[in-house]
Amino acid sequence: MTASIATLSNLLSNGVASFGTVDDDMTIGINSNIARDALKRASDFKSVEDCIFEAMANAYEAYNVGETPRVWLEIKRTGKDWTIVIRDKGVGMDRANGLRRFFSLHLKTERRENGLNMRGYNGTGKIAAFKYASRMQVETVKDGLRNIVVLTSDILEEAARNEVQPRAQFLVKDQPTTDENGTTITITKIKKGFGFGAEVFRAIRNKLAFEQMMWMKNGEIFLNDELVPAEAVKFTEKWPIQSECGNFAGAIYYNAERPYQHELPAVYMSAGRVFLAREQFGMEGKRFRQNVHVEVKATEEWAQEHFYDRREAFVSESRDLKLKLNNNPEAQAYADFVTMEVEKVMAELDRREDERRRQSMSEFQSKLERELSKLFSNLLIIQGGKTKEAVDRTDTADTISEQVVKLHREQQKKGEGQQKTSLINFEFAELPDNKQFQIDYASKRIKLNQNFATLKALAIYTDSAAYQIATLEVASAAFSDLLTHNKVNEAFADQTPSIAEVLEMHSTVSEEVRNLAATITPELYVRCAKAAEVRA
């Protein structure tokens, strides 16, 4: 018995591969309820348009490189029921390989392994239809053979109850045909509570237009035989970019009127017709990153030479693909080009904004911004210098000042004399009246709202102690919000907490941060009082 335990212990410690033969009596299989997993994954999709898009994306990717993807979506009413049909004229699927992979969860497709897919999936989007429907029929033709397979929610639910593998049913198997290659998915038996009124149609159309703008490029998408055009990127300025080597080209879009929504504020990188990665190269922590969208494409020649059939070497396997740069000079060259071009634009936007603000803001407000940025940056540095506890509330002002000077010098040495990017920056801005402030948590940039009631009432007294005190109140609240947010995020970085845990942590940290701010903000109140005495 002791020997068996030792053997099992070594097996668990060193891995099965280190043993030539494993005793079956000393192992146990790890099983998964696939049917239950499929139903759960389907229920996780947020909306009907998201579910339909998953099928549309699969159909779009069914075409070979060099072909124009065409996908037809038909939504029609048949009596009291609705029928949804997604059709493509792509490569089709054979029975032995293609359909087997289609009805497998968490399995890479052959096209994905060959680097042909536009973007990464985890192999579960194909069952999204069971979020809103109970029957899915897959009809596919490949190389003169037709196969038709049906899967229903009843099959999945029964398999889940019995803890067995669900089995889709063939209606037609390897039937000879002269029809061209392609796949048609028909979804019926819509569940109670789901319908396809005008609002849902509009949401589906908007989703398809948006996704074409993002990555389903150079294709044609039809909804009830009507071509759905891609949504256009809205911009106030656009900069074309081109690498000296000629391999990479694209455009940087900037919208000065409003930030981009959803997934747009990012760098979208493609290789030939294939979506490669969504990155933040050159945008991290920048002031205007929410107002910038970037599209860059490598040439088809570059893709053929360096990317196709080597996808695994270029991108990580996740929903939002990230470029692999380690030991990959071609990927690094692509990333370097994008970073350089984006940083040029970001620097120009910063320069313009600083110039605009210098011209529109009083000298006193500019000085106040600098004072607040320095004051709260000092406080942040002190906090960073005590990794396991907050600043001692009994510290004197002199002690705090000594800590600030010491920590500043340490940070300067680490950064070779350059200002750390983690310091807080305050600036005055015009925001909606109901907002006190706006925080960019990543870059630690805080905008204080000049239109907020308190500051607006003192607008003609911006050089007064009253305006300075009112500003300090708003700045202190914003600082507490910023530090609390970042601390809570750090605490749960590697966890999936419950709402109750987050709220409890937020309450505790918020109190600590407010007390921390109270140790140093009186310094500015004293300055305000002295300034008022001098003016009097």
List the helices and strands and how they pair.
Elements: H1 2-14, H2 34-44, H3 48-60, E1 70-78, E2 81-88, H4 95-102, H5 110-113, E3 133-142, E4 145-152, H6 153-162, E5 169-176, E6 182-190, H7 198-214, E7 220-223, E8 226-227, E9 237-242, E10 248-254, E11 267-271, E12 274-279, E13 292-298, H8 300-307, H9 311-314, H10 329-360, H11 363-385, H12 397-414, E14 425-429, E15 437-440, E16 445-449, H13 453-457, H14 465-491, H15 499-517, H16 522-535
Helix pairs in contact: 2-6, 3-7, 11-12, 11-14, 14-15, 14-16
What does this structure look like?
By secondary structure, the protein is α+β, with helices and mostly antiparallel strands. The chain has 4 domains: 1-30; 34-227, Heat Shock Protein 90; 237-354, no CATH class; 361-535, no CATH class. It has 16 helices and 16 strands. It has helices at residues 2-14, 34-44, 48-60, 95-102, 110-113, 153-162, 198-214, 300-307, 311-314, 329-360, 363-385, 397-414, 453-457, 465-491, 499-517, 522-535; strands at residues 70-78, 81-88, 133-142, 145-152, 169-176, 182-190, 220-223, 226-227, 237-242, 248-254, 267-271, 274-279, 292-298, 425-429, 437-440, 445-449. It has an 8-stranded mixed β-sheet with strand order 5-4-3-6-2-1-7-8. Strands 9-10-13-11-12 form a 5-stranded mixed β-sheet. It has a 3-stranded mixed β-sheet with strand order 14-16-15. Strand 3 and strand 4 form a beta hairpin. The longest helix is centred in the middle third of the chain and has 32 residues, at 329-360. Mean pLDDT is 79; it is low at 15-19, 111-122, 385-405 and 411-421.
